[in-house]
Amino acid sequence: MAAELQRKKLLSLFEEEQENIIYMKGAELMYRYQTDFEFPFRQESNFLYLTGIDEPDYHLILDLRTETYYLFAPKRDEHYGVWHGRIKSKNDIQTLYEPDELHYDNELLTVLKNLNPNVIYCLNEEQAEFLEDLDRSFNVDTESLNDAITFCRSVKTEDELNLMREAARINNIAHRKVMEAIKPGMYEYELKAIFDYHQIQRGLLFPAYNGIHAAGINSAILHYTECSSRVNNGELYLIDAGYEYEGYASDVTRTYPANGRFTDEQAAVYQTVLNALNSVIKMVKPGIKMEDLHMSAAEIILEGLKRMGLVKGSIEELLENDIFALFFPHGLGHFIGLDTHDVGGYPKGVDRIDRPGIRFLRARRELQAGMVVTVEPGLYFIPALLKKAIDDDEKSKFLNADKLESYFEFGGVRIEDNIIVTEDGFENMTDVPKEIKEIEKIIRG
Ligand code: GLY
Ligand code: MN
Ligand code: MN
Fold first, then answer.
1. Distances in Å between the alpha carbon of 63 and those of 69, 77, 125, 142, 377?
2. By alpha-carbon position, which residue is closest to atom 4 of ligand 1?
3. In the chain, pLDDT over 90 holds for what percent of residues?
4. Considering only CA atoms, which residue is closest to atom 3 of ligand 1?
């Protein structure tokens, strides 16, 4: 069982902490404001990692001295049986989740008192307060467990990698289906419907994040979610969307012309982003730093902008003056796993770089085999950002303002793949067409 290995991995980090225990509370159902409208249940990722349990209201204890896994199940009443589902017997729960000791949750306090730990490690203040409300004498620590479980989750086990490969396989199909279906005149929501259909039809029920389905100028809005515009002839369409498989996310972006033919301007911008993506992916291997990958992508984007005649000056000057951040204002990528923006991007003691663009980089560390990251360079024409730069003497000397203004309706391009760091390099799990010729051929059928 994958969760058993993952518990062992966590316990191995606490070998010296024999008088202590770990406590964790699973997720509860959530409702829309003060109504009975339930959000789809999604287990809290750390609890899912340690238990594999995908239902609400469970708790766990790991005793560091004996390595015993205690599971506390909710005692469901007949109302649960009426409204929510069949009530599992203790035997059912034991067989499904295989704890060393199974209790109902009303025994939690008794078990905690019997264990009589020096310290209870838990994840956050909310869980600490829950424990302290049970008994004021408990000594609770909210830091060590977070650090330890983040350490575990940031390097995936082979079981986890296989789940991520399966997530990627299905997401690859859904992305390709949208590319095959697009035609000028379709609405963003129609394309979203095709994407969602191909995920759900294959058993992937949960989006890993709010998908972005963006036509034309909307493609330059980084977190665009309106999903209501028409994709017109001549416009680009940017889809950044993914579903999760057994909790593991996929996060893929493609950008392509609705009519199946890149204009010269679109092709130049697109090829620049593709060059950045391909070049950076080839650099991925153990020991490389995410911030170095980010700056390498920034340099390739600046070279492309220079070729297009949109910026001027040497690449060194353009880098020094943060001109790349006007066009590539987000981070190159992030860790991905049970969460789309997964834990582990910043090890303890490492801070964000306070510099435009790279400030938003969600991972800043040397990569290791078993880590999984996205690589997602982008090049956008965001009028709000560019107008301000054109009005700024320090920035405007690097910009060809007249030409740049003709790109204000262009939108943007992002291409995003999901990459496993391997012992000798990388494995790219994303297999959705991205070369210009290939995309054009698919869209034009
Ligand atoms: N769509 C979220 C991301 O790419 O990070
Ligand atoms: Mn994405
Ligand atoms: Mn991403």
1. 7, 29, 21, 16, 44
2. 251
3. 98
4. 251
Contacts 24+ apart (CB under 8 A), 343-347: 343/45, 343/149, 343/150, 343/153, 343/154, 344/150, 344/151, 344/153, 344/154, 344/371, 345/290
Residue in 252, 234, 275 with CA at minimum distance from that of residue 436:
275
Mean pLDDT of 35-48: 97
> What average pLDDT does the chain have?
97
Mean pLDDT of 333-362: 94
Please state the domain extents for the chain. Answer: 2-153, 158-443
Q: Regarding the domain delimited by 2-153, which CATH topology (the fold level of the hierarchy) does it fall under?
A: Creatine Amidinohydrolase; Chain A, domain 1 (3.40.350)
CB-ligand 1 contact for 360 (6 Å cutoff): no
Q: What is the pLDDT of residues 302-332, one digit of tens each?
A: 999 999 999 999 999 999 999 999 999 999 9
Query: Does CATH number 3.40.50.150 belong to domain 158-443?
Result: no
Q: Which ligand is nearest to the CA of 330?
A: 1
DSSP 326-350: HH--S-S--B-SSSSS-TTSS-TT-
Give the closest residue to 212 by CA, choosing from 258, 255, 268: 255
List, in sequence order, the alpha helices (H) in 224-310: 264-283, 290-307
Is residue 380 helix, strand or coil?
Answer: strand
Work out the end-to-end distance of the chain between its first and last CA atoms, rounded to an integer number of angstroms: 44
141 and 121 Cβ atoms separated by less than 8 Å: yes
- Report the nearest-CA residue for atom 1 of ligand 1: 240
Atom of ligand 1 nearest to the CA of 414: 4
**Per-residue confidence (pLDDT) for residue 290, from 0 to 100:** 97
Ligand 1 center to 213 CA (angstroms): 12
Quickly count: other Cβ atoms within 10 Å of residue 307's Cβ. 12
Six token digits for residue 355? 């510099």
CA distances from 10 to 15, 99, 381 (A): 10, 16, 45
Give the position, in ligand 1's atom list, of the atom nearest the Cα of 333: 5
Ligand 2 center from residue 334 Cα (angstroms): 10
Q: Which 3 state secondary structure label does DSSP give 124?
A: coil
Closest alpha carbon to 365 in 333, 402, 406? 333
Between the CA of 334 and the centroid of ligand 3 the distance, in Å, is: 6
